[in-house]
């Protein structure tokens, strides 16, 4: 089975258990911060399901409808996940704000602290595995899911600390305050995810460091071509698309030009996983300095 799909299934399983556990405990405690954590985990569950379907779709080969492949399914999934997180943050704030001004009673603090501690530990290890697979496969959907869970780790620890503080100080107003702090953390994570995914949706170029590596690979073969130009790069999911124009001597046979392009493409693909390279070759127009020197030499002869 595809490693990305396995990781997505792990996320679905862990989020299902944690969402149900937090919701049950939050209702029994009458704790808005624990319930907000359950809502957060519920959105993480939806995000995990979206990530599962997106990585499954993105792994499909190109077809008649999607001739450039399905890579952008992952970028789209990442944006949808981020919008879901923003919705969860709004719900948490709406639920917590009125409780800043009304008397509330938080019960079963020990049970809440236990659930939050378990949640933080589980999400830490699951998010670490998701991030490992996301980095290995360069999957934006899995990276988004991993960041969701990593945010859940921090918020669970925050709720845990809040429960302990309520137990020590007796200040139950800390409960809605912590819930609203969680919402702010969630909003920041969502904005970061949207920003990162939009760069791929809008066909932004690859990072400067990656483009420089591509140029360095091309320059390895500089003795075999005149020059190159119009290097363009973009990314869709984990797939990189690279195209350029390569100027070669006009009298070269087609098989020699083809061999040169194959070697450049193979080396770029060896460096970057799932890269698609397109090289457009152009014959030299006899206007470069090298050709002018050769023509002058021939005239003198």
**Uncertain regions spanning at least 5 consecutive residues:** 295-301
Approximately how much beta-strand content do the residues carry?
Answer: 5-15%
Helix content percent band = 55-70%
Strand order of the largest sheet: 1-2-3
- What is the H/E string? HHHHHHHEEHEH
Report the radius of gyration as a whole number of Å. 27 Å
Using the 3D structure, state the CATH architecture of the largest domain: Up-down Bundle
Quick check: average pLDDT? Answer: 80
Give the CATH level 1 class of the largest domain. Answer: Mainly Alpha
How many β-strand runs? 3
Count of individual domains: 2
Main sheet characteristics: 3 strands, mixed
- The CATH superfamily of the largest domain turns out to be Cation efflux protein transmembrane domain
Distance between the termini: 67 Å
Q: Remind me, CATH topology of the largest domain?
A: Alpha-lytic protease prodomain-like
Counting helices, strands and paired strands, the structural category is mainly alpha
The helix count comes to 9
Q: What would the principal axes of the Cα set say about the shape?
A: elongated
In brief, what are we looking at here?
Helix content is 69%, strand content 10%. The protein has 301 residues and is mainly alpha-helical.
Folded structure, characterized:
The chain contains nine helices and three strands. The chain is mainly α. It has two domains: 3-201, Alpha-lytic protease prodomain-like (Up-down Bundle), CATH 1.20.1510; 208-300, Alpha-Beta Plaits (2-Layer Sandwich), CATH 3.30.70. A three-stranded mixed beta sheet has the order 1-2-3. α3 runs parallel beside α5 (140-169) and α3 runs antiparallel to α6 (174-201). The longest helix has 30 residues, at 140-169.
């Amino acid at each position: 089975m595809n490693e990305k799909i396995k990781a997505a299934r792990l996320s679905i399983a862990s989020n299902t258990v944690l969402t149900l556990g937090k919701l049950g405990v939050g209702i029994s405690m009458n704790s808005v911060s624990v319930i907000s954590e359950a809502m957060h985990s519920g959105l993480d569950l939806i995000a995990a399901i979206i990530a599962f379907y997106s990585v499954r779709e993105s792994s499909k080969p190109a077809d008649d409808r999607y001739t450039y492949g399905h890579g952008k399914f992952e970028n789209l999934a990442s944006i949808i996940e981020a919008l879901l997180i923003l919705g969860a943050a709004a719900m948490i704030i709406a639920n917590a704000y009125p409780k800043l001004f009304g008397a509330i009673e938080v019960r079963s603090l020990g049970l809440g602290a236990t659930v939050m501690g378990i949640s933080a530990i589980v999400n830490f290890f699951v998010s670490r595995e998701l991030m490992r697979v996301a980095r290995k496969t360069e999957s934006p959907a899995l990276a988004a899911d991993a960041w969701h869970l990593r945010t859940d780790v921090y918020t669970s620890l925050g709720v845990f600390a809040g429960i302990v503080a309520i137990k020590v100080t007796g200040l139950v107003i800390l409960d809605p305050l912590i819930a609203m702090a969680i919402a702010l953390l969630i909003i920041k994570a969502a904005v970061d995810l949207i920003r990162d995914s939009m760069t791929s949706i809008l066909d932004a170029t690859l990072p400067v460091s990656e483009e420089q590596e591509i140029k360095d690979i091309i320059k390895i073969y500089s003795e075999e071509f005149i020059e190159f130009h119009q290097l363009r790069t973009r990314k869709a999911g984990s797939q990189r698309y690279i195209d350029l124009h390569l100027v070669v001597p006009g009298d070269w046979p087609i098989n020699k030009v083809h061999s040169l392009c194959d070697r450049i493409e193979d080396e770029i693909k060896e460096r970057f996983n799932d890269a698609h390279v397109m090289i457009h070759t152009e014959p030299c127009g006899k206007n470069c300095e090298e050709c002018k020197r050769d023509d002058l030499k021939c005239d003198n002869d």
